[in-house]
Predict the structure of Transcriptional regulator GlxA family with amidase domain.
Amino acid sequence: MRAEQHRVADDGAKQAARLKVGFVLSRSFTLSAFALFVDTLRLASDEQDRSGRVLADWQVIGSTRHLITSSCGVQVAPTSDFVDPSRFDYIVVVGGLLTVENPVDQQTITFLRQADAKKVPLIGVCTGSFILAEAGLMKRHESCVSWLHYKEFRERFPELAVRSDRLFNLDRQRGSCAGGSSAADMAALLVRKYISRDAERNALEVLQIEKARTPSDIQPRRPLYDDYDDARVKAAMITMEQFVDGSMPIEKLAAMVGLSRRQLERIFIEKTGMSPAKAYNRVRMERAKSILAQSKAPLIEIALDVGFENASQFTRTFKRTFGQTPSQHRAAALRAH
């Protein structure tokens, strides 16, 4: 081989992608989650936004090359058929609307199971964790989902561990992500691990993201109550919402955030001005208030959902909390719309 050919071969070796990701897009997938994940890889793979696949490479893989329609109507074409999954460092499943039946076909499920058999890590982004769970691929793994989808995940997969107080989880064989902007945070972690911190920094700067968040960061959300600055209070209140039927004992709630009941009560009084029990009641009433404004569900159904035995008890508590009955609140909400 001539010297020039040696140089070309060396350059090719230096530019071999250090991180290879295959994307599986579900029907009605969330475009923003996919775009943020793949753009983080793109910007980390090259310098100065030149979009070269130098340090990372990615493919949208599918059972066909048919266009896949996202939940917002934009369509994306797969760039690769299903190939040996071991060609990738990660397979990322991007979910979307939960109302879609059969979000992926059986060939896709088979491919994901093959990836699992070959020890290729699988990541569920947005509701992609639902797809992995449905395929039996989240056993012995904790799924991280958006707080919007927590209740449905528990109902569909009661035997699986799930949480909605964090942005994402990532271990050696599984990952899951709440979706939205946290897709960029998860991608940034992969970039840092496989490429470099400089590459991560470059990607985030171009995306106008000041700093990558970590798996331990709490999901930013529009809560049903004031946003308190104590992580233990936040985590406790998020758990209250997850058990909005009032079934979570305060003692157990305290233990979940690493405190005794007395310590939790002291922190709640200090940070919120009310006891955990009163805060729990407020969370339940706020959920009821939201359901009343957004649905035509009967009062007894709403009462049962938030942990009351009958509509009259629920009505009294609601009026004591908000100064109007549930019916009055629903009527006012209808007039406002």
About this structure: Residues 1-14 have pLDDT under 50 and may be disordered. The chain has two domains: 19-207, 221-336. The first strand starts at residue 19 and ends at 25.
